[in-house]
Amino acid sequence: MGQKVNPISNRLGIIRGWESNWFGGKDFGDNLLEDKKIRTYLNKRLEKASVSRIVIERTLKLVTITICTARPGIVIGKGGQDVDKLKEELKNLFKKEVQINIFEIKKPELDANIVGNNIARQVEGKIAYRRAIKMAVANTMRAGAEGIKVQITGRLNGAEMARKEMFKEGRTPLHTFRADIDYCQTEALTKVGLLGIKVWICRGEVYDKVDLTPNFAQEKSNSRSNNGGNGRSGRGNRRRNNNR
């Protein structure tokens, strides 16, 4: 099972929290579609900001959006002008009150979404895929990961027949639920077609009980990353977001 299922969804409720946090009732479908539109809009709008995750919480009158990014300065802008402008754009687009929180990812080399998107952009920029992947693997292991696995699929080097290549270093135990496995699936558009890219990163094992409150879970994830991926950060490092 661990080899087939998405490692993040497989750990939901154990060591990973949800990215959409609300009770929809009869409006479930509308809220779900709106969440998808928000994420699509923000990912396109903040394409250069290295956005990893977008967590959405809803109350009766307020939508709280938490943007997890490796480059918060691009999102916030000078004096907070860009984030205020973004807030107004979302408010006008979806006709709801919006609050935006920004979380900085201290070690982007340990984030699968950022690593995968960087590989994709390099491949689209005509850098050899082997070189791009090997550099990403080396940087991730140097940042403190216990293991990384990268798979690329498609017409590699313009070959007539599509094939798959895998690059692995360290350990990525997919069947161990306490293993903090981050996962990304993305694609690179080249002249010969789409290349599929998948990234698995093992950041250590989590032995403590995890509070899955959205912002708190992100704090915990950042704390594990900052401690070199050993997954045993002390309880004193846990703190809640005061802006909630």
Automatic annotation (TrEMBL):
<dbReference type="InterPro" id="IPR015946">
    <property type="entry name" value="KH_dom-like_a/b"/>
</dbReference>
<keyword id="KW-0687">Ribonucleoprotein</keyword>
<keyword id="KW-0699">rRNA-binding</keyword>
<dbReference type="InterPro" id="IPR004087">
    <property type="entry name" value="KH_dom"/>
</dbReference>
<protein>
    <recommendedName>
        <fullName>Small ribosomal subunit protein uS3</fullName>
    </recommendedName>
</protein>
<dbReference type="GO" id="GO:0019843">
    <property type="term" value="F:rRNA binding"/>
</dbReference>
<feature type="region of interest" description="Disordered">
    <location>
        <begin position="218"/>
        <end position="244"/>
    </location>
</feature>
<feature type="compositionally biased region" description="Basic residues">
    <location>
        <begin position="235"/>
        <end position="244"/>
    </location>
</feature>
<comment type="similarity">
    <text>Belongs to the universal ribosomal protein uS3 family.</text>
</comment>
<dbReference type="InterPro" id="IPR057258">
    <property type="entry name" value="Ribosomal_uS3"/>
</dbReference>
<comment type="function">
    <text>Binds the lower part of the 30S subunit head. Binds mRNA in the 70S ribosome, positioning it for translation.</text>
</comment>
<dbReference type="GO" id="GO:0022627">
    <property type="term" value="C:cytosolic small ribosomal subunit"/>
</dbReference>
<dbReference type="Pfam" id="PF00189">
    <property type="entry name" value="Ribosomal_S3_C"/>
</dbReference>
<dbReference type="InterPro" id="IPR036419">
    <property type="entry name" value="Ribosomal_S3_C_sf"/>
</dbReference>
<dbReference type="InterPro" id="IPR005704">
    <property type="entry name" value="Ribosomal_uS3_bac-typ"/>
</dbReference>
<dbReference type="InterPro" id="IPR004044">
    <property type="entry name" value="KH_dom_type_2"/>
</dbReference>
<keyword id="KW-0689">Ribosomal protein</keyword>
<dbReference type="InterPro" id="IPR001351">
    <property type="entry name" value="Ribosomal_uS3_C"/>
</dbReference>
<feature type="domain" description="KH type-2">
    <location>
        <begin position="38"/>
        <end position="106"/>
    </location>
</feature>
<dbReference type="InterPro" id="IPR009019">
    <property type="entry name" value="KH_sf_prok-type"/>
</dbReference>
<dbReference type="Pfam" id="PF07650">
    <property type="entry name" value="KH_2"/>
</dbReference>
<dbReference type="GO" id="GO:0003735">
    <property type="term" value="F:structural constituent of ribosome"/>
</dbReference>
<dbReference type="GO" id="GO:0006412">
    <property type="term" value="P:translation"/>
</dbReference>
<comment type="subunit">
    <text>Part of the 30S ribosomal subunit. Forms a tight complex with proteins S10 and S14.</text>
</comment>
<dbReference type="InterPro" id="IPR018280">
    <property type="entry name" value="Ribosomal_uS3_CS"/>
</dbReference>
<keyword id="KW-0694">RNA-binding</keyword>
<dbReference type="GO" id="GO:0003729">
    <property type="term" value="F:mRNA binding"/>
</dbReference>
